[in-house]
Amino acid sequence: MKIFLNGKLVSKEQATVSVFDHGYLYGDGVFEGIRSYNCLVFKLKEHVDRLYESAHSIMLDISMTKKEMIEAIVKTLKANNLKDAYLRVVVSRGVGDLGLDPRKCKGQQTVVIIADRINLYPKELYEQGMAIITVPTVRNLPEALNPQIKSLNYLNNILAKIEAMNSGCQEALMLDHLGYVAECTGDNIFVVKKGQLYTPPQCLGSLRGITRDAVIELAAKIKIASHEHVLTRHEVFISDECFLTGTAAEIIPVVKVDGRLIGNGKPGPISKKIMAKFKQITKVQGVKYTIK
Ligand code: PXG
User: What are residue 113's phi and psi, to 5 degrees?
Assistant: First the structure.
């Protein structure tokens, strides 16, 4: 495995970062998770744009241009000879001292790109659907740490994930500070009611997921209307279908929420249609690269 570390491709053993890196000390940095399918990087521009937006918001001036970042991502994929991959791009503030002050990180930022393969959930869960549970940990307040910022500080989501797993579920439904449905720990949520899609507005406490936007786009192409709508747990309980979207999880149907069966307790026809269409577009859309 070859890892991109500050401009060089190095082995896994050589890919080490200082304990004084503020990414490690404080979670001071930003990241993206990206997938490639069939030698096509899916929504690469959108991911790189979001990375730079997250960085801008935390006043981290990434030392590479977007074009250089895209080249580095493609180079990492090629070096690992991966046709299908999950990529992690991490940019941290770099090496500083033991104080919070980011101005002390005077040297180079740390830029890491890892290309690997992951299957987040077993295949059966995609066929049978998963059960999720609402957890006590509320999604970060937008006024405190805006969920739109994909920062290295993921403890809010990890705490929620731990709570879900303590209750025997693999994913958590997180509410926003007002008690409305926000998102899951690493995925956005959609419900289907009377043939139409509903997903929470991203301004209220969820990440503007790139898979979420891709689903809205592809749904329109197959004449399924989507709405950004405030959702309560009740609307989720009484929905006909429910599914989650994320780069790592892709699209996964949800068949039980807080013990309530969704629809007939099986992945519904619209979810299946969206999943099939998504699979189809990922095979043909994206930034092309070649491998040996
Ligand atoms: N919400 C949150 C909080 C996320 O972290 C998504 C939604 C989906 O966004 P995209 O753009 O990927 O459709 C994410 C991104 C994991 C993992 O291991 C998941 C993400 C990030 C890092 C790790 O499940 N998801």
Answer: -130, 120
Span(s) in the chain for CATH 3.20.10.10: 123-281
- For domain 2-116, the question of CATH label 3.30.470.10 is answered with yes
Rounded Cα distance, 110 and 4, in Å: 10
Right CATH for 123-281 from 2.60.40.420, 3.10.310.70, 3.20.10.10, 1.10.260.40: 3.20.10.10
* Residues taking part in catalysis: 150
Alpha-carbon distance 128 to 87, whole Å? 27
8 A C-beta contact, residue 267 and residue 124: no
How far is ligand 1, taken at its centre, from the CA of residue 81, in Å? 24
pLDDT of 261 > 80? The answer is yes
Name the 3-class secondary structure at 165.
helix
Q: What distance in angstroms lies between residue 34's CA and the mean position of ligand 1's atoms?
A: 10
The model's confidence at residue 272, banded by pLDDT at 50, 70 and 90, is very high
**Distance of alpha carbon 189 from its chain centroid, rounded?**
12
Query: What letter does residue 107 receive in the DSSP assignment?
Result: S
Strand partners, 238: none
35, 153, 207: which to mutate for ligand 1, most atoms within 8 A of CB? 207
Residue 224 in contact with residue 176, Cβ under 8 Å?
no
pLDDT tens digit sequence for 158-171: 999 999 999 999 99
